[in-house]
Amino acid sequence: AGGGGRFDSPGKGRGLRVTRGFAVGELVLCSPAYSFVLSGEERGSRCEFCFTKKEKLARCGKCKKASYCNAKCQKGDWAMHKLECSAMMAFKENWCPSEISRLVARILAKKKERCVSEKILLIDDIQSHVEDVDNEKRERNEAEVAGLHRFFSKHLEFPDHKDLLALISQVACNGFTIEDDELSHLGTALYPDVALINHSCLPSAIVTYDGTAAQVRAVRNMEPGDEVLISYIDLMYPTDDRNNRLRESYYFTCDCRDCKSKSGDKAKLRVRKRSDPVEPQAIGNMVRYARKTVREFRAVKHIKNILELLEMCEQSLEEMGSIFEDANVYMVHVMYQAMGVCLYMEDPEGALRYGEKIIKHYR
């Protein structure tokens, strides 16, 4: 929006700061994606090019999989869709590259061009943290390399193995999840200029999406010279959880005022009031149980059947409810998952029951 510039942020490395004042809600930066890909789960219900949701979309005449609003959108997407079109027909039900592999393939297909999304930061200058990747992630990245060669070798010339691993790490660490107004996952994209923005658990801006374009808007008033800061993670969780996630995904810990003071943790980890107060050790054990439950649910939600997932939610809510209040963030998290399961099961009464419990704590 003509009011930001790159600078060296103390303790953070490169960053973005404003060169004029911005009021709450004002657009700080708007960036088209360098490259983007629609999630496989959304294929058929949204346009592959603009992500518009429509009932009547025109399917690709060749693969019959990709859908578009009109001929203009289909033509605009062809340079990218051709990477997948013939492969989907050839592999049929065995065509299963990951979303990251699909995005990396698209980046490779256009990497010779400088894009309008690189006004401040070039894609080659995005940090990869490849030297920080642990063995588990290294194995996962090697699997992505194998998938790229299997599904996209017909249309792409690949860089050497080391450079390809670095690009996969760049995308894994700097890719953005495109979401709709209900925060549902629509796809993944890379925005080099937006990737320049550093994290804080006390952000000054938020990233939203207009189709496939990223919009950075102020969530507090900013003065000239202030750094633009966004949150890379869900801020609902207590300090230790947030920093564990930051270390796992982005290889740093946050030292913002909120993380140093842990001032919000008590309210997020509310414990039931009882005549015999809960022992600190019992609270600690339940927090560990809750974290384990959240991790396990994420790991199995695409594997277990829907009734098993609902039972998992109900059992963990009963266990945690013996110590935690309903307003505890772990209780809210599991109730939200249970609501989603009920919606998937087309059980509106169950979804409403959980939804009413959740919304009380957001008022």
TrEMBL record:
<dbReference type="Pfam" id="PF00856">
    <property type="entry name" value="SET"/>
</dbReference>
<dbReference type="Pfam" id="PF01753">
    <property type="entry name" value="zf-MYND"/>
</dbReference>
<dbReference type="GO" id="GO:0008270">
    <property type="term" value="F:zinc ion binding"/>
</dbReference>
<keyword id="KW-0949">S-adenosyl-L-methionine</keyword>
<keyword id="KW-0489">Methyltransferase</keyword>
<dbReference type="InterPro" id="IPR050869">
    <property type="entry name" value="H3K4_H4K5_MeTrfase"/>
</dbReference>
<keyword id="KW-0862">Zinc</keyword>
<keyword id="KW-0808">Transferase</keyword>
<feature type="domain" description="MYND-type">
    <location>
        <begin position="47"/>
        <end position="85"/>
    </location>
</feature>
<dbReference type="GO" id="GO:0140999">
    <property type="term" value="F:histone H3K4 trimethyltransferase activity"/>
</dbReference>
<keyword id="KW-0479">Metal-binding</keyword>
<feature type="domain" description="SET">
    <location>
        <begin position="2"/>
        <end position="233"/>
    </location>
</feature>
<protein>
    <recommendedName>
        <fullName>[histone H3]-lysine(4) N-trimethyltransferase</fullName>
        <ecNumber>2.1.1.354</ecNumber>
    </recommendedName>
</protein>
<dbReference type="InterPro" id="IPR001214">
    <property type="entry name" value="SET_dom"/>
</dbReference>
<dbReference type="GO" id="GO:0032259">
    <property type="term" value="P:methylation"/>
</dbReference>
<keyword id="KW-0863">Zinc-finger</keyword>
<dbReference type="InterPro" id="IPR046341">
    <property type="entry name" value="SET_dom_sf"/>
</dbReference>
<dbReference type="GO" id="GO:0005634">
    <property type="term" value="C:nucleus"/>
</dbReference>
<dbReference type="InterPro" id="IPR002893">
    <property type="entry name" value="Znf_MYND"/>
</dbReference>
